[in-house]
Each structure stands twice: as structure tokens, then as C-alpha cells.
Amino acid sequence: MSTIGGIILAPEGINGSLCGTRESVEKVLAFIQSDDRLKGLRRIESPVSPEEEAIHQGNHGHSASSPLAAGEDTPFRWDHVRVKLKKEIVTLGMPTVSPIERVGKYIGPKEWNSLISDPDTVVIDVRNNYETRIGKFKGAVDPCTTSFREFPSWVEERFELTRKDVEHAKDDVNHSDQIAEKEMKNQKQHLPRVAMYCTGGIRCEKASSLLLSKGFKEVYHLEGGILKYLEEVPERQSLWEGECFVFDKRVSVEHGLAQGNFKLCYGCKQPVSDTDMESPEYEYGVSCPYCFAQKSEEEKERARARQKQFERWGIIGGPDKGRRPTHKQDSASRDENQLSKSV
């Protein structure tokens, strides 16, 4: 079986997800790291049982029962490694923030509990609301963002980096610009110690670079992200609550990176629980309680039509993903042969 998955390349680095036998994945990684600029990549491995691997190999990576199966808009939907060139690995929209130039201090999973248990540490979940909804670290602050682009604005508001009293001080004739600058400097000196985390540690590199540019002095981030923490820290010692959303067909994982209990709403790509799927607002491939009200009837009808095509041709998961059923392929071949003979 060949390696499948997706890779993002940007001036600031590389990120991706690969699936395949160990031998095939190692070949791809060796090729990538043959470039001196890409050596020393951090890796997170998700375990696959021999049974699951056998199923995966037998169906060319498209078994619906495999936790690494192909699915719509996941890293494993293709029959090859797809490479995308982007301006940013994760879009923040601030070119001046560069994780290449500076990032916060990495903290390993085994030291993480001690750091976030300190009452003087502000723990921030850098992920978006559909991810934080199903799990986060105990006591973490949730910015409730819908995209990473909203994070800088949240930082400004949460830590009052543009304080009105300082702005008024600049306008007041009784205060000089020096006094205003002094107040702003004092404010930055009292910014708290911050510990941030995300799924695999990628977003945190850019987020920590942003905070450092804003005057924060102590900025830490979880090395390897939540996935590395769930892999290394035993459940009995863990401060993680819930499950971790992942961007592949598994949807969510638990401790030990075991597949979680959430499914994916193909209408909005958000995780849904068994309870969510019992809601009258849930319709497979169309909507769920989190997107039902935001979708027009026209959008729902288009989704239903799309879902019928998926079910007819087996696009979401299954060995016939993206291909017509075998008997129709055979029929088409016969018609083509007959046509060639008649010509």
C-alpha cells in the first residue's frame, strides 16, 4: 500500500498527516528530510492494530471500519500524498508574526501538569470553539474563536492591551506622552505567565510568537500538543477532560490516542455526539444542532442532493470511494468494447 495523506508547505515550515505501512511512511519522511531545511521534524504517531492495518491495506486505504479510513475533507481522502503550497500553515493574517524568528518556551507533557497547576499561570486553549467544545485541560481559558484569525483580537481584549485609560491619558493636556508610555510599559510588565496548547503544537508556535510581540515575557506552550500529552501521560495522572478533536476520520481521540466517541457532521464538519445525533435537527450529511439554524433550506436541499450522490457512488469511506460500483464499471467497459468494434 502506498502512503496517503496531506502535507502543507509554507515559508514558515511544514505540517502534514500521513497514513500507510511503517515502511512506506518512513520512505516519505526520509525523502522530506533529505532537504536540510526540513530535518529534525517532530513526529506524532497514532497506533493502528494489525487487524486494522490488514483491512486498510486490503481496501487501498478506504475501509469505512478503519480509524484511518478515507472520508470527505480529511487528510486521508486521496490515493496519494497531496501537497499544498500556502502562505501560512495556519492562517493568522499577520505577516509580522513569525515563528521562525521567535517562539515561546516548549514544555514537555511530563512537566505540563506542574506548570498549569500553578495559580499564577493563565492556561489558554488556542483552538477553535468546535474543538474546545468536546474537551480541554482543566481550568483552561477558552477564547471561543471560530477561526485562528480571531485570536489576536481576543488577546487584545482579554488582556486589555489597548486600555482606554491610557488612550485618554494621551489626549489629556495634564498628561504628557511620556506618562502615557510609562503606564503602557507598566501594564506590559504585569502581563501574566501564559501556558498555551493546541492539537499538535503548530498553532501554539505562531500564537506564542504573537504574545511575545505584544510584550508578554513568560510564554510557554505544550510541546507536541494535546496528542503528545495523551500519548505519554497516563490517564490516572492526566489533567485532560473530554476528548480531542482530530482532522481525520477518527474525529476524536482519547488517552493513548484510542479512537473517541464523536462522529462528524458532514454538513458543517463539526464533531457530534450520540445525543446530538438523536436531535430532530440532525440529518446525516446535511445538518446537526450546531449548523441547522445557520443553513437555509436551499443549502439543506443541496446537501441532500450531494448526500444522495455520495450514497450512490460510495464517496464517503468504503472501498468504492470516488469510483463507480464494479458492476457498472464492467458494463461501461463492455459498451466501450462494442463501440470500438463497430468503428
Name the average pLDDT: 79
Q: Give the helix level as a range of percent.
A: 25-40%
* Number of H- or I-type helical stretches: 12
Please, how many domains?
3
The end-to-end distance, rounded to whole angstroms, is: 39 Å
Question: Any idea what the radius of gyration is?
Answer: 24 Å
Q: Quick one: how many beta strands?
A: 13
Descriptive notes:
This protein has 343 residues and is of the alpha/beta class. The strands form five sheets. It has a four-stranded parallel beta sheet with strand order 4-8-7-5. Strands 2-1-3 form a three-stranded mixed beta sheet, with no helix packed on it. It has twelve helices and 13 strands. 35% of the residues lie in helices and 15% in strands. Helix 6 (164-171) packs antiparallel against helix 7. It has three domains: 1-89, Alpha-Beta Plaits (2-Layer Sandwich), CATH 3.30.70; 91-161 and 191-259, Oxidized Rhodanese, domain 1; 262-315, no CATH class. Residues 58-75, 164-173 and 316-343 have low confidence and may be disordered. It has helices at residues 22-32, 50-58, 109-117, 129-132, 151-158, 164-171, 177-189, 202-213, 225-232, 274-277, 297-313, 326-342; strands at 4-10, 13-19, 81-85, 105-107, 121-125, 135-137, 193-197, 219-222, 240-242, 244-245, 252-253, 263-264, 271-272. It starts with a strand and ends with a helix. A hairpin with a 6-residue loop joins strand 12 (263-264) and strand 13. The longest helix is centred in the last third of the chain and has 17 residues, at 297-313.
